[in-house]
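Batch manifest, entry 17 of 40.
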Amino acid sequence: MDSTIRPDGVVVGLDPSPDSRQALAWAVGRATAWEAPLHLVAARSPESKDGWDHDHQDSRPMNQLHRQRLEQARAKVLAEHPDLYVSVSATNRFPAAALVTASRVSRLVVLGSHGDSMLRWSLGSTAHQVAIHAACPVAVVRPERDTPRGSVLVGIDRFDDLGALRWAAADADATGSDVLAVHVWQRDPSGSGRDRSQAAGALDSTVADVAREFPDVKIRGEVLSGGVTRTLLAQAAEHDLVVLGARGGGGFADLTLGRVAGGVLWRCDATVVVTR
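Output type: structure tokens
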């Protein structure tokens, strides 16, 4: 059984929860579209009560149980996608720690919004910790829309940082989606910031720069007004995927997850990717 994480691959965290199965399906779709290797990780959750770690009818070591179920998941993926490279690993480490370590050599880490914990917040603790500390982009997967929109929403704060928009455009290029880049403009009380027309011009320039890199992707920009988090959440209802930078232009320089990215992660009904 190959447990090597290949560079530039997609890593997905697995546990017995329905959210984890949704995350696996989403990760398989991205690995297939990107022609990237896929790595499945199962890690022990101390809060689990009925999951893989607590099979009282089976006396085999925990890792052996993990590996059996990982191999079952791998076999199912390969049955549907025989050309996909799939590796697996099981660990006794906390799930967040295992996924953050994997992020150092990966293209994307994928996990469900909740794990197998009995605590059902709007965002699980593992997803939150991985989004804060991962070295690569992180996808927190929510249930798919009944009717796919075929579009990606990107929140743009800093016009000099094209990372989130480039990520979204590359993903849209592979999946056949359109991209909407949104800048939420707010009036600067000091009068020293951009006015709305200047923000629109800066956004148009940013969109044009990325569109030249991805000529087959339809990318458009829109400037909206209002509270940033609230506006992005309202727009997310019309899109399959929301992409945000981990932090915007405000806050502390060493902040790893900004207020807007954190707020959208906690409250969004769509799948969210946080880039770095």
